Amino acid sequence: MELLEYQVKEWFREIGIPVLPSQKIEHPTDLKRLKINYPIVLKSQVYGGERANVGGVRFAETTIDAIAAAQSIFNLPILGELPEVLLAEVKYDAEQEFYLAVVLDTAVCRPILLGCTQADIDWESAGEKMQHVVVEQEFSPFYARRLALKMGLQGALMQSVSAVVEKMYQLFVEKDLDLVEINPLGVSSSDQVMALNGNVSVNERAIARHPDLAEMARKMVTRHSNIDFKPHLGNWDGVELHGKIGILGNGTGSVLATLDLVVNAGGKPGICLNLRHGFPTDTSPTTFCDRLDKALNILAGDKSIQVILINFLGSLPQVEEVVEVIANYVPHHKNDRKPQVLRSNNGSKSRRESHLPRLVVRLAGSEFDAARKYLATIKTSSDTSIVVIENLDEAVVEAVRLVKLTSHKKF
User: Nucleotide-binding: present as a keyword of the record (predicted)?
Assistant: First the structure.
């Protein structure tokens, strides 16, 4: 999970990293009540990079200029995303600009401090210019000073940069981050330093340990009304495509293999979720059954999903309970069964629609023999169905066929 620049700078300010006076702008008229002095810079708050090159960063000398610039930026999509807020910040003239970062290196399983005396780095040749220090033991100011010295800094500037690196590492540990980056770190003529832009990447496995991060994650999911989990350091948990076949699996390999087969069979995958791990927004431990139940409701709530393809391979905890969750997904006793009301982990209720996506279930493994037989005997209403298939290729073909069948019925 990544944060927007204004959120990152709030963290920087709280921990003691120097940042410029700034103000969050939610509407152009907010600039009439600006509390910082002109001239200012207005920055689009989006997750896409290269905003400066497409007009997402503009300078303003007066309120009239600032309002006009803000109106333009609010209506400027960057990589398809419109900003919901802007950041107004005092203009800063830097004589030098540095690059600093603290990153988790999964190859050595240790944090690494990075520093370069150039902010605009050509990453293809970064190895020649970028200095690094591996934090091999418990962190101490020695590591920060060593990085500053390797960057060729001396005197007051070395002390200033070292102090910033120490605070970055403190933030890195306190918030369970994978990355803390300042790019650029501005340096004035008097060797004073200022974080002009920042970026952090939160370890998604750690979100549940931090109530403030869990709240941010919930707001992000609600705001974008999707499950946009991104691949990060190999912990692939899910992605939203925009097709009609939702995919659920119990491992990265099973999900990705299923996704590829659906595409090769002429189908279009939709939301794909790996249920081996908890959702980033879960604030308490969950069982596999909890995650399966929640995932089914997520997919059922997406009107574009017409078929849910479940591919569980190997072994599962609580097999009988997992089968019950799948069986209870559809109203298989139509005359005496009421629409089921479910409660999600955050306490909110959601009512299942009377028309649900069809289920294609592939269970591979000897322990699933009884489960397959049980699910195959379930009689469902005419609007829904559970198809149980042991062979994955056949399950994929059936899921694609059901989507086409549903599309034809609409016409």
Answer: yes
**At 365, is the pLDDT very low, low, confident or very high (cuts 50, 70, 90)?**
low
CATH of domain 225-410: 3.40.50.261
At 172 the three-state DSSP class reads helix
Start and end residues for every CATH 3.40.50.261 domain found in the chain: 225-410
Residues sharing a CB contact under 8 Å with residue 328, sequence separation 6 or more, in sequence order: 340
User: Are 270 and 243 spatial neighbours (Cβ–Cβ below 8 Å)?
Assistant: yes
Question: Given 3.40.1550.10, 3.40.50.720, 1.10.10.10, 3.30.470.20, which CATH number is that of 96-202?
Answer: 3.30.470.20
Structure tokens at 177: 């981050």
Q: Alpha carbon 332 to chain centroid distance?
A: 36
CATH architecture assigned to 21-90:
2-Layer Sandwich (3.30)
Q: Contact at 8 Å (CB) between 73 and 36?
A: no
pLDDT digits (tens, 9 = 90+) for 250-263: 877 778 888 889 98
| Tens digit of each residue's pLDDT (9 = 90 or more) over 149-173 | 999 999 999 999 999 999 999 999 9
pLDDT at position 245 is 94
* Total Cβ atoms within 10 A of residue 60: 21
DSSP state of 96: E
361 Rama class: left (phi>0) / alpha (psi -120 to 50) / beta: beta
Q: What is the Cα Rg of the chain in Å?
A: 26
| Numbered ranges of CATH 3.30.470.20 in the chain | 96-202
* Most confident listed range (12-16, 105-109, 389-393): 12-16
Q: Which are the contacts of 188, defined by CB distance < 8 A and separation ≥ 6?
A: 93, 94, 95, 194
Q: Is the pTM of this model over 0.90?
A: no
pLDDT at 333: 37
